[in-house]
Design a protein that fits this description.
The chain contains eight helices and 16 strands. It has 329 residues and is of the alpha/beta class. The radius of gyration is 22 Å and the shape is globular.
C-alpha cells in the first residue's frame, strides 16, 4: 500500500528483476492493466532522461521490447536463463493458470472485480506440492468496494484496513503488507555534480504536506481525497465517488451484506459516463425489490471507459448472469 506517486511501480519492477537475477532457471510474470500500460510504464519509461534499462549491464540483462520479455544471461551451466514476461491482463488472459513461479501485479486498484480469483487454485496446487509461490500486489486505495480491499481482507485475514500493515499468517501462507504514506517518501541527496551521495531526505516537509491538504480541502470541500491518495486511507470517502453514502454507511458500521433471493429477479440501473472523461463516471446498482423491501446487492463504478468496456468488467461479477432487466438514463 503506497501513496500516490511514491514509486510503487518502479519498486515492484526492480523487486522482480532482483528475483530473476538471484534465482536462475525460473520464469516470472509482471502483470499490468493492459499492453499499453506495460509499454508506457516499463519499456518506454524514462527516468532522469534515461530509459529504465540503461541502469542495467548489457552482459546480464536482455530486454526484448517487442515480445515484452526480459532474459537474464547470468545462468550457470545446467540452468536455463531466467525469463520475466510482462503481461497486460486485458490483452493476454492466457496468463491465467500459467506456471510462472513469482507474480508481480501492479496498480491493483485499476483491475476489474474478481480479476485475480484464479490465483487461489494456483496457490493451493503449489502449496500441496511443497513448491514456492510468491505474489506481490501494489496499489493505492479506491475505497472498500474494489478488488484491492477484497484481496487484502482475503490474504491477511483482517477486515479492518487499520490492521492490514505488517505480517500475517493465514491458511494461504505468509503475507506482508507494506504501508508507505506521503511522510515516508524519500529522495536521494545529490552532490554538486548531481551524483547520489548515498543519503536520503524527505520529499515533502510537514509544512508542504499541510499546504497540499489545505489545497485539497479548498478544491473538493474536504480532505478525503488527500487521505486516500497520500495516506492510503480505505476509510476516507473520495469526493469523486458516485457512492459516497455507501462508504459512509460502511464506516458507521450500518452496512450489512444480503444474499440474492433466487425467487425474485435482479435489476440493474445505470448512469452512463463518457469515454476518456475521468470526471464523469459510469455507475450501476444491482438490486432486488419484493415484499415491500428494496435490497442493494452491489454497485459498480468506473471512469474513462466506453460502455462496452464497463459491461465486460461487470460480466465478471457473479450477479451479472442473474440480471433480467436493466434501465438506462
Amino acid at each position: 500500500l503506497w501513496s500516490r506517486r511514491a514509486g510503487k511501480d518502479t519498486f515492484s519492477h526492480e523487486r522482480i528483476l532482483y528475483t530473476g537475477f538471484s534465482e536462475p532457471g525460473n520464469q516470472h510474470v509482471y502483470v499490468g492493466v493492459d499492453n499499453v500500460w506495460i509499454r508506457d510504464n516499463i519499456f518506454n519509461m524514462y527516468i532522469e532522461g534515461r530509459t529504465f534499462w540503461d541502469e542495467y549491464p548489457e552482459d546480464i540483462i536482455e530486454p526484448k521490447d517487442t515480445k515484452r520479455e526480459v532474459w537474464f544471461r547470468n545462468n550457470p551451466p545446467g540452468f536455463a536463463p531466467t525469463r520475466i514476461k510482462y503481461v497486460g491482463l486485458k490483452n493476454e488472459k492466457g496468463v491465467v493458470g500459467s506456471g510462472y513461479r513469482d507474480w508481480m501485479i501492479s496498480d491493483t486498484g485499476l483491475f476489474p472485480d474478481g480479476a485475480f480469483n484464479y490465483l487461489f487454485p494456483i496457490w493451493q496446487d503449489k502449496k500441496a506440492q511443497g513448491l514456492r509461490f510468491q505474489v506481490g500486489f501494489n496499489g493505492t486505495p479506491r475505497g472498500r468496494n474494489q478488488d484491492l480491499y477484497t484481496l487484502l481482507c482475503q490474504y491477511t485475514g483482517e477486515d479492518d484496513p487499520l490492521n492490514f500493515p505488517g505480517w500475517h499468517e493465514t491458511p494461504f501462507g505468509t503475507c506482508y503488507v507494506d504501508l508507505i504514506t506521503i511522510e515516508d517518501v524519500q529522495v536521494p541527496i545529490r552532490d554538486k555534480a548531481g551524483k547520489p551521495t548515498g543519503k536520503y531526505k524527505a520529499l515533502y516537509s510537514k509544512e508542504e504536506i499541510e499546504e497540499l491538504r489545505l489545497a485539497c480541502i479548498k478544491s473538493m470541500g474536504n480532505d478525503n481525497w488527500f487521505r486516500q491518495e497520500f495516506y492510503c486511507d480505505f476509510l476516507a470517502v473520495n469526493a469523486g465517488l458516485v457512492y459516497q453514502a455507501w462508504e459512509i454507511v460502511k464506516e458507521e458500521g450500518r452496512y450489512t451484506k444480503v444474499n440474492r433471493d433466487p425467487n425474485h429477479p435482479v435489476f440493474i440501473t445505470f448512469d452512463l459516463g463518457s469515454k476518456g472523461k475521468f470526471t464523469d463516471a459510469t455507475s450501476a446498482i444491482y438490486w432486488q425489490s419484493y415484499a415491500g423491501v428494496t435490497k442493494i446487492l452491489d454497485t459498480y463504478e468506473s471512469r474513462g471507459k466506453a460502455f462496452v468496456e464497463c459491461l465486460a468488467d461487470m460480466s465478471n461479477n457473479p450477479l451479472f448472469r442473474y440480471v433480467t432487466f436493466a434501465s438506462l438514463p
